[in-house]
Amino acid sequence: xxxxxxxxxxxxxxxxxxxxxxxxxxxxxxxxxxxxxxxxxxxxxxxxxxxxxxxxxxxxxxxxxxxxxxxxxxxxxxxxxxxxxxxxxxxxxxxxxxxxxxxxxxxxxxxxxxxxxxxxxxxxxxxxxxxxxxxxxxxxxxxxxxxxxxxxxxxxxxxxxxxxxxxxxxxxxxxxxxxxxxxxxxxxxxxxxxxxxxxxxxxxxxxxxxxxxxxxxxxxxxxxxxxxxxxxxxxxxxxxxxxxxxxxxxxxxxxxxxxxxxxxxxxxxxxxxxxxxxxxxxxxxxxxxxxxxxxxxxxxxxxxxxxxxxxxxxxxxxxxxxxxxxxxxxxxxxxxxxxxxxxxxxxxxxxxxxxxxxxxxxxxxxxxxxxxxxxxxxxxxxxxxxxxxxxxxxxxxxxxxxxxxxxxxxxxxxxxxxxxxxxxxxxxxxxxxxxxxxxxxxxxxxxxxxxxxxxxxxxxxxxxxxxxxxxxxxxxxxxxxxxxxxxxxxxxxxxxxxxxxxxxxxxxxxxxxxxxxxxxxxxxxxxxxxxxxxxxxxxxxxxxxxxxxxxxxxxxxxxxxxxxxxxxxxxxxxxxxxxxxxxxxxxxxxxxxxxxxxxxxxxxxxxxxxxxxxxxxxxxxxxxxxxxxxxxxxxxxxxxxxxxxxxxxxxxxxxxxxxxxxxxxxxxxxxxxxxxxxxxxxxxxxxxxxxxxxxxxxxxxxxxxxxxxxxxxxxxxxxxxxxxxxxxxxxxxxxxxxxxxxxxxxxxxxxxxxxxxxxxxxxxxxxxxxxxxxxxxxxxxxxxxxxxxxxxx
Length: 793
Ligand SMILES: [Zn+2]
Hints:
Blueprint: E1 2-3, H1 7-26, H2 31-34, E2 43-53, E3 62-72, E4 77-83, E5 88-94, E6 97-99, E7 102-104, E8 108-117, E9 123-131, E10 142-145, E11 152-155, E12 181-190, E13 194-197, E14 200-206, E15 211-222, E16 229-232, E17 235-243, E18 246-254, H3 259-265, H4 269-280, E19 288-293, E20 298-299, E21 306-309, H5 320-328, E22 336-338, H6 348-363, H7 365-386, H8 404-421, H9 423-436, E23 440-442, H10 444-455, H11 460-466, E24 472-482, E25 490-499, E26 508-515, E27 521-528, E28 532-537, E29 545-548, E30 558-565, E31 569-573, E32 578-583, E33 589-596, E34 610-613, E35 618-624, E36 630-638, E37 656-661, E38 669-670, E39 674-677, E40 681-686, E41 692-699, E42 715-719, E43 727-733, E44 737-742, E45 748-754, E46 757-763, E47 771-779, E48 782-791
Parallel strand pairs: 2-12, 18-19, 19-21, 22-23
Antiparallel strand pairs: 1-20, 2-3, 3-9, 4-8, 5-6, 5-9, 7-8, 10-11, 11-16, 12-15, 13-16, 14-15, 17-18, 24-25, 25-28, 26-27, 26-29, 30-33, 31-32, 32-36, 33-35, 34-41, 35-41, 36-40, 37-38, 37-41, 39-40, 42-43, 43-46, 44-45, 44-47, 47-48
Zinc ion (ZN) binds next to helix 6.
């Protein structure tokens, strides 16, 4: 399944999310959602024969019976449960005899058989039922009737329900990811409507009473959430795909007025099927199919019968990514299914990854790279906000099963896995996995171990870092030194930092690319574990600089951009929060900007000019641009974003400064800059930009040249300084003000209210550790004066 991200439909999604939140707060009062029939260890349903009247669309009712073919998993079975939500059970037959020993509490049917049965005793259970099937409280998933009575259809996943599987809203079943069964559906409707289910339409019978019965058969086993039905006036757009395993019919069912649009919107469907077959092996289903439904917030990958928004059948290619995503589930999710909600990245992370595969196959490498980079930027920017924290892919809490982490970070991590294993081993192993696990479920551990054994690459460390840990590693080049010993001529030292990740990752593989003034490039791979690593590299030229992960093959805590510039003017670097203004260009420039989402290396020695240094980011700028142009770099600050701890809430941006160092061998220093912008957002500009590292810091107030708050008769003096006991703070203010005291991590540790006039107050830091503290006088929300003090203890 997938939400639609297009702006024109986003309103719907936001409304839906809002409703989901509201319902979430009420969920404790709704026992229906919290009772679940866990994965059954008692029985295995082999087949569902679903017989329903879906005639009364205005009353929103269904009725009929489902005949389940069941085999016990245990000897001497006599009791078991089935899921059926909100519908009324009329009667149950056990092998054609009426069974009276059952109960139904609106959620679970508890069955007591008249006697114990053994492992070979396959039996039938016919459940007769009727009622109004329900939607998920979130409004995403369940069974829908349109207000104008033109449509009835299901979406097999309930966003908010536990478990998420939602077969139980329209037939009695074992509603989990693990139990797979075959399906026959016999659906009776008014003659003005038709019926589309998964599989193949076997026959349509006119009952002679104004109704017809549609008989559909699905020849491959699926879990309950992939079963589907849609009732409306629907007509097929038909084609044939000549796949690896032979001809596969394509049928896209739409409203009659949408058929021409569907032909255009799905024009590349066969090519996309070929792209996926080429990468992942044959399409193993009897039909490739979609059905247009009046649901605007996304699509659902029902096996061979994907529920697809009518609103996305536009006659354009705008939603190709959406139907490609759902189609790819016929490898990831439908064919090989996550064993539990904890493993959902196996369904949705891979389907999101398949969006990059479809983009690469259909639109080429540049489009692919942009898709991957944009996704990575979105992951770093939004996943922790959408899912309330930095989360590991595996074992995500149920309310975030269908969240940004599983989808987008999932895709990000799988792209990293692809590059880690290399294309040949990666795709071969994935094909083998899908073949071995066809029509089966798979856990994350099984997934990891299969790929490891099949490829010969031990993926334990990779999975520990990228699948089982929250956050991200961050990789950077520390230094490069000439090396005259055997095996090479340069030694490159690399470093790992942590971005919301608890421990250093091991068995890391990173690419380093050397470049010289003739634009020659040489790339090597460095493997290392823990915080640091190094490699002696034999570079076929004298490099001018070396870059970490030039092609962003690893989804670490960096977003980079490189480009060749040939013209004067302003050039932006998307996802790097940077721009450059070029003048007097005389030759092409190569500029690479690496935006690092971690704290820069700390100051090596204390500075009287630099009070604090950013704890959230720095830039590294490399390139070939010396001498043949003048470059003005633009660094963007955002108080509510990256600079939230450098510039706390009431902190004026007057003290923000631009720091520079050529490389890790130098200490940070203030570099000449100019500033535009105000308290919340703005830019620092550096004339004559040079290669090296840049970050923000806090210096003396008004160092940035903005001095709007300077006021006479305001003073602040702290003594003794340093002190091993307490500090006297002598001040003079003309209006109500306060003192804020920060530690070196920019955390406010004390706030003192000041009276108007001249006075001296004491600050005793005895409950804090020794070190450097910053005392700031704040008036009307602006930092007026600042002092650095040292507590010796
Ligand atoms: Zn999906």
